[in-house]
Specification:
Shape: elongated
Order of helices and strands: HHEEEHEEEEEEEEHHHHHHHHEEEEEEH
Radius of gyration: 30 Å
Strand content: 15-25%
């Protein structure tokens, strides 16, 4: 059920079906990374080449060269002139063209000296600007378009942008958010671009439902697993909201803050979860202390606020690789699956940082979520088996004993148990506090440190030897 490195454990101890179940989440994650390119629309594929772009404070100049990929307006207001080279075959096809504007700005467009529609209402004064939608498509009539050079003149303002922005013009894949290509009436960014968070969000919703324990469930509840899938699900919903709602660009900053804070919290929770897999049995206080120290380190300037979640997840994943590999090698072989999930997520965080929040995080987390679900399923089967046959030596070695009394099951630390007495078809469990609980099962087991001295009772010998 878990992915095991073939160099350490061959397929002799597992079936091809088991190996396929371990590899499947990684293949699905790779497909999610490729899906946006597969679903690329015609307007994305036929962007017309830009000859040059100039910017000035007013139409009278002076005009200076402008880099569209890193465009910031002086005093948040300027004019932009862009020259497009339209090929002859585009004119011959007769297909309508559209001006695609994406980013944190308002703009009014003039195409070959003919006024076109606007993206909001730009103005030199912040109070007079009406923020435009985050994404807009403006139809360019073919009667005003000709083969060769075509001039676009934009009056732009960005008074309502956030303070920390590298460019007011956004990018989609390798395309700049100011381009001319085949017209589409759809204003919003395509759902194909957000294929990874869209599909993973559905999986996370199902996972959240699976992780919420029912009142009659006998499965040991793991709040860390529930927190991981819930937080990541919220981030995915916030991420793909741009494909659902074409909000005004002044609302883009709150959306980014929601995504950034949620992913940062996911990184902290992931680090706490990874520390819990260590064989060193760290206390809750120590784990929280380590998480706090790492959070303070990644937040120290010159790290920007948007870099903090990326660094947090990268550190958590890399530490998770070490801790799970160590635990899997020495004690728990099934953790190799989690180890490789951490490797995959860390690799995407380091190698694909530009698109990590858009798709890499959600594709990279898919093997991790698959492990959490499988691990919970395995725990449920183990608990059910224990409740049916009684506590075993393995259940005691894991520091827990399952107590079943009056159809209610709970796990308690076995170190709190002094002795277990036989009571006919039942067992009476005696605790250090003097409390006694009648268990529904008979005295038919002999776990580690609890040798059976007679047919009537089992004694915990470790406290005796320690005294």
């Amino acid at each position: 059920m878990y992915l095991i490195p073939f160099g350490m454990h061959g397929l002799g101890n597992t079936s091809w079906r088991t190996a396929a179940m371990g590899v499947a989440p990684f293949i699905a994650a790779l497909l999610l990374l490729l899906l946006p390119s597969i679903l690329e629309s015609e307007s994305d594929q036929s962007a017309i080449q830009i000859s040059f772009s100039l910017m000035a404070k007013s139409t009278s100049g002076p005009w200076e060269s402008a880099e569209l990929a890193q465009l910031l307006l002086p005093e948040d207001s300027a004019w932009l002139e862009v020259m497009f080279d339209v090929p002859e075959h585009i004119i011959a096809s007769g297909k309508p063209l559209g001006l695609y504007l994406s980013g944190m700005f308002s703009a009014s467009a003039t195409w070959n000296n003919t006024a076109a529609r606007a993206k909001g209402l730009p103005d030199k004064d912040k109070s007079a600007e009406i923020p435009g939608p985050i994404d807009a498509v403006i139809h360019l009539p073919m009667r005003n378009t000709h083969a060769g050079s075509n001039t676009l003149l934009l009056e732009m303002s960005s008074h309502h942008k956030s303070g920390e922005v590298a460019s007011i013009i956004h990018r989609e894949n390798d395309l700049i958010g100011l381009r001319v290509s085949a017209y589409s009436a759809e204003q919003r960014r395509s759902i194909g671009y957000y294929a990874a968070p869209f599909l993973v969000a559905a999986l996370l919703l199902v996972s959240v439902i699976a992780f919420i324990p029912s009142p009659t469930s006998s499965t040991n509840f793991n709040p860390n697993s529930l927190a991981l899938v819930s937080i990541l699900g919220l981030a995915a919903l916030a991420e793909l909201s741009r494909a659902v709602f074409n909000y005004s660009y002044n609302l883009h900053t709150p959306r980014l803050w929601t995504i950034t804070i949620t992913i940062a919290y996911f990184g902290a929770t992931l680090l706490y979860y990874a520390l819990g897999k260590s064989i060193f049995k760290l206390s809750k206080r120590k784990k929280l202390g380590i998480v706090l120290i790492v959070a303070l380190i990644v937040c120290v300037p010159p790290n920007s606020f948007t870099e903090t979640p990326l660094r947090m997840i990268a550190i958590a994943s890399l530490l998770g690789v070490f801790l799970t590999a160590h635990a899997a090698w020495l004690r728990t072989p099934h953790l190799w699956g989690l180890c490789w999930a951490f490797v995959f997520l860390a690799g995407l965080a380091v190698l694909d940082s530009d698109l990590f929040f858009d798709r890499g995080l959600y594709a990279g987390a898919l093997p991790l979520v698959a492990f959490l679900v499988r691990d919970r399923g395995a725990s449920a089967l183990e608990t059910e088996s224990t409740l049916r046959t009684g506590p075993t030596q393995q259940s005691f070695a894991e520091d827990k004993i399952v107590i079943k009394s009056s159809s209610v099951q709970k796990l308690v630390p076995f170190k709190q148990v002094v002795a277990i007495h036989g009571a006919g078809n039942y067992s009476e469990i005696e605790f250090e506090s003097g409390e006694k609980i009648l268990d529904d099962r008979g005295l038919n087991f002999s776990p580690q440190n609890y040798p059976r001295h007679s047919f009537e009772f089992i004694v915990h010998t470790l406290p005796i030897w320690n005294t």
